[in-house]
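Database export, one record per block. Field names are fixed; values are copied verbatim from the stored entry.
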Amino acid sequence: DIWQEFDTILTTVIAFTGGLLGILFMIPMRHVFIVSNENNLEYPEGLACASVLEAGQDKNNPQQAISVIKGAVIGAVFKGLISFTGLLKSTLEIAMLYGNKIFFFGGDISPALLAVGYIVRLNVAILLFIGGCLGWLIGIPLLGNGLEFANNPLDGAWEIWSSKIRYIGVGAMVIGGMSSIYKVRKGLKDAINILRSKKKTAYNEVPLNERSIPSFAINILSLTAIILVGGTYFYLTNNFLISLITTLIMLIMAFFFTAVASYIVGLVGNSNSPVSGMTITAVLFTGGLLYIFGFSGTEGMVATLGVAAIVCCAACTSGDVCNDLKTGQIVGATPYRQQIMQIIGVAVASLVMAPIMQLLHENTPGGIGGRELSAPQAGLFASLANGFFGDGNLPWDMVAIGSILGIIILLIDYYLEENNISFRLHLMPIAVGIYLPFGLSTPIVIGGIISYLIESKNNSDNTSDNGILLSSGLIAGESLMGILLAFIAGAGIKNMNFGIDPNLSIIMTILSVLAFVLYFHKESNS
């Protein structure tokens, strides 16, 4: 219902200001997260992007560019066979009832996810898988009343995850977010000092390959964006006090989660950055504060979701920007030129996004939030806001369990760190694994295992360039085919139905997956 109050101009303003703040807050953090933390934050996808750029420039070794093309073709073919022809299954999953417990296992059929696992490598891939196991293989049997879903255990597993398990992930993410902020506290202080810096002569002395947009320009643009956001909140609520409070909360949240997003992208990659978890945390904190201040009803809901919208855009954009800047550092790009183009990119994207969303909302049965465009994350945000200011009921017991679990994981990781054990139990990837469908973690851990096998064989800490390039191509090919299929669907052709027997499709899917995994290992190791 709140969406009906959003027109195209308002949506554009929210997208642009949120993205702009993400970029502007990220700029002074560049030195903190990219330059000074090279040993702790590897930016696996930034390294992959740099490898692709370098491969395109290496005329003496055309095999590198061919690896990217091979990966793109394979990724596109798999996506087409799954999403357009239906010859292959998108997911292989099974659930069975044993006593009063539901036991589930499954995996998504996605070369891109396997490639993500290869890029982020084994430690992070295992952490995501551990999170999935905690939520789906342990949590669902422990928390679920299986007899309620005796007729369809698979639907029961998904229902238990949706109503209970993912809120455990939310609780763990809240602890993980606070822990991440604590870990980067010195970096945040350094970033604030950079923003407050009044030195004008020092800027010209900075080498071009280290020069960012000057601080005075960052401050002016930030102030402009903040005023626009405050005006937007007033337009939505028609209440000056709540608009002022909400703007202050947004400013603090956006700054902190820009840092968290940058840290997480450096740790596990942009594909695994839990932006939805950060947005959920923003909803919880904002809703809680506004509730304490005595605001209620639609006014409180709109204000809370307004903060969530800006924080979500800021966290998404800052993660992308941080990844881009890391790639630029590797290939020798000039940061301020990248940053200027990133600001232009956000402006163009916000102008394009709003009318597309409006068209989807107006021309799809049920609109955004309906059956065809369910927007599950947005629905979760809405249910959280409704729990504070409406008649909704949040499973606070699940959030509390997740928080306790997060603290336990932090203590174990502290022990591992103190004893110089190479394997680390980072909380955020585990929380993400709990929060996301289990099928995503299965191909990711397979990719991580392949990368580990190749590293062990080559006695090296780095996976082969060929594997990185092939993985980059797989991700790009699957993404581009998804866009192409969206255009085809927009033209009225949703898919081709060959009427293939479901059992035969499952057999073909299993054989295709086995063949692809063997091929991927062989090519990555060559």
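Remark 1: The mean pLDDT is 82.
Remark 2: Strands lie at 91-98, 101-108.
End of record.
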